[in-house]
Amino acid sequence: MNWDLFGMWHSMGATAQGVVIILLAMSATSIGIAIDRGLRYRAARRASRAFVLQVAESLADGKVADAISVAKRNKTSHIAKVVAAGLADFEAAPRSASDAQRIEVAKRGLARSAITTHAEMKRGLGGLATIGSTAPFVGLFGTVVGIMNAFRGTLSATTGLSAVGGGIAEALVTTALGLLVAVPAVWCFNYFTSKMEGFDIEMENSSMEMVNYLLIRLEQRKQAS
């Protein structure tokens, strides 16, 4: 039995080699998705912290237009996207609309933006789930085919386990590779899913706080008039 990687590669059949290539492609895809989402979530977290401080000052001074401008300039913050949509829809509502109608317009804008932002930030996680759930079976397929070829090729010439042991060991490499691809993909999927749950909570809380701010602002306008 040759345990050298290149030796095992050359001793594999065409089907097993194809399975290895597919698994390597799946591994590269999952690594690419993990890096992309990791950088995206890190940037969103940093940008949101800076945005909250900036927009709080504008809203405290009643400068809604400035708050919208700050939010629209911040392209990476998930909170900024939600706040920008809600404030923009609130300001764009007809002046003839009642306060309740303007608040409802803002709520719809906040909800619509939250859904869109969620879908954008979740992009690629489905691929990680698919790779994590299918990679072991792809590897198992390569193992089954490899074992069948090992028995077919060796039993015709000689019998006994020693005659097929090397072929079986090489075939099992695809199962091991499938697990090696699947485990990190599943781990990354669960990790990023937990991050997304945190982002969803932050967007929901920001939406509620924005609605409360707009209600207070409308009440202050009534008292001033």
What does this entry look like structurally?
The protein has 225 residues and is an all-alpha fold. It has one domain (5-220). Helices cover 88% and strands 0% of the residues. The chain has 7 helices and no strands. Helix 5 (99-122) packs antiparallel against helix 7 (161-224). The longest helix has 64 residues, at 161-224. The protein is rod-shaped. The relative contact order is 0.15. The mean pLDDT is 85.
Helix and strand arrangement:
Elements: H1 5-11, H2 14-60, H3 64-73, H4 78-92, H5 99-122, H6 125-154, H7 161-224
Helix pairs in contact: 2-3, 2-6, 2-7, 3-4, 4-5, 4-7, 5-7, 6-7
Q: Flag low-confidence runs.
A: none
**Which descriptor suits the 3D outline?**
rod-shaped
List the domain count as a whole number: 1
Gap between N and C termini: 90 Å
Helix content: over 70%
Beta-strand percent range: under 5%
Any idea what the radius of gyration is? 28 Å
Number of contiguous helices: 7
List keywords for this structure.
rod-shaped, mainly alpha, 225 residues, 88% helix
Task: Describe the structure in brief.
The protein has 7 helices and no strands. The chain has 225 residues and is an all-alpha fold.
